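Side project, low priority. Logging it here so it doesn't get lost.
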Amino acid sequence: IINGASIMESGACLVVGLNSGTSMDGIDACIVEFTEDPADAVPAPRMQLAGFLTHPYPPGLKEQLLRVALDGTVGEICRYHTLLGRLFAEAVRAVVAKQHLAMESITVIGSHGQTIHHLPQPEPMYGYQVSSTLQIGDPSVIANDCGVTTVGDFRMADVAVGGEGAPLVPYMDALLQQRHYQETGRVGMLLNIGGISNISARVPGGESGDEPRFFGFDCGPGNILIDTLARRWYGQEFDSDGKIAFSGKVSTVLLEEMMKDEFFHRQPPKSTGREVGISLW
């Protein structure tokens, strides 16, 4: 609901989505067209990618964000919160211009922001069990700069209702697989190797004939670990096309040692991040 009206009241709308992942490579901006047909047997909108680009961070910003994420002062976080709002707004304008669209054609902007700290495990504080997660890139700045209603704080919204705030992608996977299941009767599993890897799965409902259920959770380090090793050992920002990985062999001894980390033995739902750490990073 935007301004008291359904964003699908006309049967279609354009939405800009913004994200910068744990790897902090830049801002991914996409335009997605959502369409809805009341006669559709699947109670989920259809989605079509209408535009995409990656808006790079200014030189040196990635290194500063990595530092701030672990050792930043409140003052630094406050200023970067506004700065990233400006940069995310730039990404919106860039992707809209690339598709030769007017900003007025965009119904809403959804901005994930930039995660700088993720603390999903509850800690006792003054009689409360407190979990938290923090993404910066002020949605109010984006809304003002672009003149479009902007929605954010998705992760904290999940924490507020008892979730871990991560991963978020299973929600989208659930919508996509709902249609896939209705059309094919098949269940499936999706693996996303982001900064932190996560898995989403639709599994059979059991012998009682229940509808298949959907779940997702973080399953371990992804590009955070890969990028760190690529920089440290090969002087590269990342392993392009996996060429370095393909040239090597799996070290069974190292793998078994890494799999001893308690995170891998914790039952889902579970999530992790750069600051939570996996002991052998």
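Brief comment: The mean pLDDT is 88.
Revisit when time allows.
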